[in-house]
Amino acid sequence: MKTLIIYAHPRQDSFCGQILEAVIEELKILKAEIRLRDLYRIQFQPVLHEDNYSEFFQTQVSEDILEEQSYLLWADTLVFIFPTWWCGMPAILKGYADRVLTNGFAFRTVKDGTEGLLNGKRGLVFQTTGQPEQALKPSQLSMAMEAVMDYGIFHMCGIETVTHQFLYAVNGANLETRKRMIKEVRGVIEVL
C-alpha cells in the first residue's frame, strides 16, 4: 500500500501531531510505503496566482506543483490530517487543493459537470475540532464540512472516501478521552 499523508497543522506537538504519529505507526505495522507532505514544514505556497490560472484551466504548472502531483499519482491511499478552523480546513490545505488538484490533472470538465481523474485512490480524513459534537451536528456544520471534503474534493477528483472521522472537542479533552480518540484512529488504519 502506497500511502501519502497530507498534514496541515503548524505544530508537531498538537493533537493532530499525535494523530500523525499514530497513523504512521499503524501504517508501518501494515508495511505500507509512506510519504509525508507536512504543508507547514515544507512551506507550501497556497496562493493561486494569475500566472498559473487561466479560465478554470491551469496552463502553466510550476515545478513545485508538478512535484506535489507526482506524490498524488504515486499513492493509492491518501490520508489528510488537519484541524477545523472557522468551520473548515486551514487555508494552507485549501490552497493545496486549489493549486495541486488542477483541471486536467485531478478532474476534467465534461458536458454534465466534472469527471474525476484520480480514480482508484482511497481517501481518509482525520479532522479535529475545538467544539463538541453537540455544538456542530444540530447546525449541520459537521455535515457541511464533510460535504466539502468528501464530495467537493474527493468525489470530484474520483477519490473514494473510506472515512471522514471528526475528533470533537479536543481542546478540552482529558488524557483518557484523547487516548480513546487515538485508539479509534489506529483502528481505522488497522483495517485498511
The low-confidence runs, each spanning 5 or more residues with pLDDT under 50, are: none
Q: Strands of the largest sheet, in order across it?
A: 2-1-3-6-7
Which range best describes the helical content: under 10%, 10-25%, 25-40%, 40-55%, 55-70% or over 70%?
25-40%
Structural class computed from helices and strand pairing: alpha/beta
CATH class: Alpha Beta
N-to-C order of helices and strands = EHEHEHEEEHHEH
Keywords: Oxidoreductase
InterPro entries: Flavodoxin_fold, Flavoprotein-like_sf, NAD(P)H_dehydrogenase_qn
GO molecular function: NAD(P)H dehydrogenase (quinone) activity
Protein name: Flavodoxin family protein
Secondary structure layout:
Layout: E1 2-7, H1 15-29, E2 33-38, H2 63-74, E3 77-83, H3 91-100, E4 107-110, E5 113-116, E6 122-128, H4 133-136, H5 141-157, E7 160-167, H6 175-190
Parallel strand pairs: 1-2, 1-3, 3-6, 6-7
Antiparallel strand pairs: 4-5
Characteristics:
192 residues, alpha/beta, Rossmann fold, 5-stranded parallel β-sheet, two-stranded antiparallel sheet, 6 helices, globular, oxidoreductase, NAD(P)H_dehydrogenase_qn
Q: What would you say this structure looks like, in words?
A:
31% of the residues are buried. Helices cover 39% and strands 22% of the residues. The protein has one domain (2-42, 62-190): Flavodoxin domain (Rossmann fold, 3-Layer(aba) Sandwich). It has 192 residues and is of the alpha/beta class.
